[in-house]
Amino acid sequence: MHVIFYDCWVGRESGAIPSPSARSPVTIRRRTFLKGTVGFTTAAMSAAQRRTGATGRESAVCDGKKVRVGVIGCGSVSTHYLSHLKIPHVELVSVCDRIFERAEKAGAEHEVPHQYAHIREMLAGAPFDLLVNLTDIQSHYELNKLGLEAGRHVWSEEPMAGTYEEGKHLLKLANARRLRIWAAPTVVLSPQFRFMAETISNGKLGAVASARGTYGHLGPDWAAFFYEEGAGSLADLAVYDLTALTGLLGPAREVIAATTIITPVREIKRDKKVVQVEAEDNAMVTMYHDGGALSHVQSGFNYHASFRHDYTGQGHHTIDIFGREGRIQLAGYSWAPHSVDLALRGKHELKRFADEPSDYVWENGASHMAKCLATEAELPLTAEHALHVVEILEAARESQRTGRRIKLKSRFNWPIFT
Question: What does CATH list as the number for 187-407?
């Protein structure tokens, strides 16, 4: 499997798209960058077809052994992904970043032979089958679309697109080209999620009435895009618990939400600048599920936490689900869970389950997808579920804008586990 990384993070300073040969850390506008890539897609796809001799699903199954992967983005997230992608089903081939020194560093640290400075070079360069998109939130749709149009399967960090219509287009494009697309978060793959899902499916909680999820911290200070339109705490944080709760309780039929901005100015320490906040940094979303269950997710970039925002000190519960016969709680974040607490009628004390060590980590999605492509296996994680969450995010913002309850169109196969 070949992997290519490219950093699509761009600032608001003016500038031209660097030529493929320009190995300089030029900063360009996001919209200018994306506009400059679209015309290249057809040529890149044709070149890829000539190199691989195949398009679609066939290109991703290399004699049942290795899948070639291309990863876009050499930022902080890529360090986790690169390490986790070192599995038998993967051959790391290329990394790419607009700041070429970052690509060189990633290539050296992870023994990746090819490095690129521009997406043009990536798509026309060393052949690969799976595009792993680790760029900023606002760029996900355009780059996922380019990958599919160029004949690549796609794994995307969350969310896969900015709007429901964009997400539907990605699925339609993938199906038409016999390609696969998946998107983070991977919360449904944890053993804790599975235990909770099976407990609910087996009826141990009785009729489920309500659920709540919470995820917040003081906000990122390493990149401005989190505070630009299209990102915010909904797309960066709430997406995890929205995925978990819809996975546990089923698709949402309607959404009502409220969002605000608590801190209108943010300091970005990495770039030594101050930015105006455009996207919500405080959000509450209520979902209506089939059967009458209600769930509530709150997220924000203004949460003081007495526990650490990492893999330690997570004895707190971040998801609670209440039924007539019992209550179940997730200890730890949905992206880094460590156990489940359960109390049933007649046994009011919480009892701990699913606390054995596991190999689940939040950055495992691309590795699982590569293994599935190599072995033709399936994941309980689906593009339809990811699309449903995209529609919830869009509906939450529409609800805030209009003050209305928003009906949803999308569904996905549920229950995930029985």
Answer: 3.30.360.10
